[in-house]
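Q: A small favour: would you put together sequence and structure tokens for a protein?
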Amino acid sequence: MAHHHLMAFTWDTNIGEFLFPGLIINGTTSLIILSIVLIVVCVLYEGLKVFETHTKARAARERIRQTPPPATESDNLLRRNNGSSTSPQQQQFLTLICHTLLFLFHNIFGYLLMLFVMAYNVYVFISVVFGLGLGYFLFGHISMKTNMDNIRAKTTHSLHASAAPRDGELRELERLTT
């Protein structure tokens, strides 16, 4: 007869080794400290998520704002670099590097949170859920404001667009904010 090991949540305050070798949770005090740390990590996770969205949306709005459609082909050929020491390609590359790092940190935090919950301890689970809720409470309004700013930017851009709309940039802004 095969044995099936079912994972079940426990209410035990003695978790034992937790996530890393040497990190032993063996009582109420260490569990309370762990819970506080988990709540802080979850709040940071939510803050990082909102910061990542805000940063991407701001960069997309800036690209739309800074590159007005040229009136003629000769205007396009004569347009200068605005005196910037970095080319638009270099700026795009640096922006991509920053967005990639934010993406990596956000996903690392997310997978760590998943691993925490996989300890199958109710106290750990409650700490993670509470921390995520607190993080949303603290940062959720910023996310809503960012979304409203994006809608305003799209509307304003649509109203002021010339005969040569930049649909690709609008699609990029929509992709970054969804």
